[in-house]
Amino acid sequence: MEKPILESEEAGNKLALARHLIAIYLQSREGLKELGILRSERTLQGDFAEWLVAEYLGLALSESTIEKAFDAVDAEGTTYQIKSRIVESLGSNTSFDFSDIEAHFDYLIGVFFDRSFNVMGMIKVPYDVVSELGTQTSRRFTFRWNRKTADDPRVKQIYGGMNEGP
After folding, report:
1. How far apart (Å, rounded) are the C-alpha atoms in residues 43 and 91?
2. pTM
3. Is 70 exceeded by the pLDDT of residue 142?
4. Which of 18, 72, 88, 145 falls between 20 and 30 A from 125, CA-CA?
5. Do the Cβ atoms of 115 and 124 come closer than 8 Å?
6. In this structure, are 116 and 146 located in the same domain?
């Protein structure tokens, strides 16, 4: 006879609950795929942000979910890179990271979520401003959300109370 994977009753109960919650999670992912919100096997956060911004701004999402240069395009052909972060408040410093800043887009749309994925705010930043204010490390390019970027007049609030910036 095979040994049970978890021997104690408490551990067995936790495993049963975990399996139940995993089943709900997997069903939820399938439902979100059917709605067109989840487009990849990446995190919910990224796919949800892309879908939400596309709906909010009337954009068409890129056919490829791994497009390096941009995530969406508008009717005029303007391209958008969409990044999101979960933050405690709009005053939290954070960053939007790029593997390759040379992959050109017209605007960065930064989405700030709370832990429940409620949108706290969105910013729109022209590519040249992202490039100018960001920094290159050995592995990635980083555009920091901090007081300096929040105060830059070229960084536009498009949703929420972004005047609470860092």
Report:
1. 24
2. 0.83
3. yes
4. 88
5. no
6. yes
